[in-house]
Design a protein that fits this description.
Oligomer: single chain
Structural class: mainly alpha
Number of strands: 2
Order of helices and strands: HHHHHHHHHEE
Length: 229
């Protein structure tokens, strides 16, 4: 049966009365989700752009030769950490600040900056870089055990294996474990990156005298270079 225009209009009105509210809500939620997502994307983009601009300002200031440049660099570093914590720019800014502290021989402040950067736990090559830098500064602060803990139980990305092993070799030299140092340098050579100096690694390895193990009266193995007293 063909309904008249009036009957069709009446059916439409009744259907809208029953379903109209839920449709309006569904459309509103859909629009809210869409524009909310768009707004969230814009905020993230804006946040990234702002952090990038601050980081660039930090780098530019760091290159200047002015009396107050360090204070300005430190302030920008603090702003990045406070306003954009967890961003790559805050981490990179912290590395710049750490380097400045270390150059000023304030190793503890440098260590604090590197620890903060590591705590952001990005889980990528930047983490490997931070671990190596932190381990070296800890070693320079005579905290070899802590330095080893930063490198141990962490699997670096393939590109950083050689750097990790070289750093471990340097740490072993510091605690006079020459056999372990030799093994670490050999691993570093095996996994050498293109931008690493093979000559330097080979020099470090060649600088270690040949080893021999001997046992003292207690039966404990000792490690000493041949010819050592």
């Amino acid at each position: 049966m063909v309904e008249s225009d009036e009957e069709q209009l009446e059916v439409l009105k009744n259907w809208w009365k029953e379903n109209g509210q839920s449709i309006v809500i569904a459309i509103a939620l859909g629009l809210f989700g869409f524009f909310g997502f768009q707004s969230w994307q814009a905020k993230i983009k804006s946040s990234g752009e702002n952090a990038s601009e601050i980081y660039q300002q930090l780098l530019d200031l760091n290159l200047q030769e002015t009396a107050k440049k360090d204070d300005a660099v430190f302030e920008l570093g603090k702003k990045l950490k406070a306003d954009y914590e967890g961003s790559i720019y805050a981490v990179l800014g912290s590395l710049v600040i750490a380097k400045k502290y270390i150059e000023a021989n304030d190793l503890e402040s440098g260590i604090d900056q590197l620890r903060w950067a590591l705590d952001q736990d990005r889980g990528d090559s930047i983490e490997d870089l931070i671990r190596v830098r932190l381990a070296r500064v800890l070693a320079a602060s005579n905290k070899s055990e802590e330095a080893f803990s930063i490198l141990d139980n962490h699997e670096p990305q393939a590109a950083y294996i050689s750097t990790f092993e070289e750093t471990k070799g340097d740490l072993f030299i510091q605690i006079e474990d020459l056999i372990s140092a030799r093994e670490a340098y050999q691993k570093a050579i095996t996994n050498k990156r293109d931008d690493q100096s093979l000559a330097l690694l080979e020099l470090k390895l060649a600088d270690i005298p040949l080893q021999k193990e001997f046992f003292d009266d207690s039966g404990q193995a000792n490690k000493k270079p041949e010819g050592g007293q």
